[in-house]
Structure of Bifunctional diguanylate cyclase/phosphodiesterase:
Amino acid sequence: MGKTSERTTLHYDALTGLPKLNLLKNKITDLISPGSGEQITGADSFAIIYIEVDNFRYLVDTYGTKAGNEVIKCISNYLTCKIKEPHFIARIARDKFAIVIDEFKSNTKLVHYIENIINNACTKCSTNYIFYISMSAGIAVFPDHGRDLKSLLKNTETAMFTAKSLGSEINIYSDQLKKDIVNQIQMVNKLQVGIEKEEFTLFYQPEFNLHTNEIIGVEALVRWPHPENGFISPNTFIPIAEKSKQIYALEQWIVNNALKQKLKWEEDGLEHIELSINLSSKTLESESNFQKIEQIIASYKVDYTKIIFEITETVIISHVDTAIERLNRLREYGIRIALDDFGTGFSSLTHIMKLPIDIIKIDRSFIKSIPKGNEETVITKNILSLAQDLNYRVVAEGIETQEQLEYLKLISCDRGQGYLLCTPLPSDKVYEVLRSSDDCVF
């Protein structure tokens, strides 16, 4: 191989002919002047766009390397047609590209420009393989988001991965984004310590028969009284636990302790009380972690006809067949299944009827609208009517006012929970309530 050919291989990608990462770095370095980085040659600022092809690994795993190469060449040709000098484009990894835009009028127009490019990629790329092409992009702008090569590349990549994790197509770097990432990393570390030291506790929110005022069951809710930061909201730590996959260990702890509590209640003569436990879509999708939940269930001798596992519509949308198979395994124990937050997702009635669902919980967003007479109120009434026709049990969530309660009774909703009826309580307190019901009269 001659020297010219070696230099070409070193600097240019053999598959696409695009510059490689080292030429991208040279381009950025040339734009940043030596020294403080406060001035650049040419424009007052420039932007780096980091682009990754979504789900590329699955394409290669399914169709092979040849299919992957064809898609990459198609994308390369498309981007080359869209990005002209003085702008710059490079292929920096197997499924990743970078663009340097050294002239643009505003961040808003820049985002719009890149958005149009990646949105049109699937319609412009035609290959021999049926594969929907989508991409995620992150943007960092000099000098606002970095004054040197290292920080600019790092922040651009951070913006892209944030876009991917949020399910958005494009994201521009910001100081707040950096703070959010730091906070997330710190939360992951705190979660690990919390799980190892068992800092979590379970509260229980009673569910009532709305016509007799009797408590018929409780829902187990995880709470985190952090030793230094006080109570940390589940809305804060649960999403991070799901992203970091710490949800598996946390959920196993929840199921184990909830069933332990149920056994104690049964021994104390409260065997009639139902216990609801939330099951994340992550656990339901993971065979190995679902088996761990099954092992915990098998280790307890409780009345499983009084146990309810609650799932959300996310499971229905993503993995219907898998959900059906695993939920049926739970039902073999006598466990019933509740569909939580009903009405907030995008599932069809066909999907719902396929699933082994026993209970539908109407989301609090619909209950909140009562009794204003708007569309949500009508939907609530129709959901209840439909569920009754299909022999589902219905539970209204988030009852907070007397007006909401009276309306639900009027339309024959039998069961409900919410702060008007009773707040979530620690195990010792809920035991007293289950014995007397004096603290939760409505």
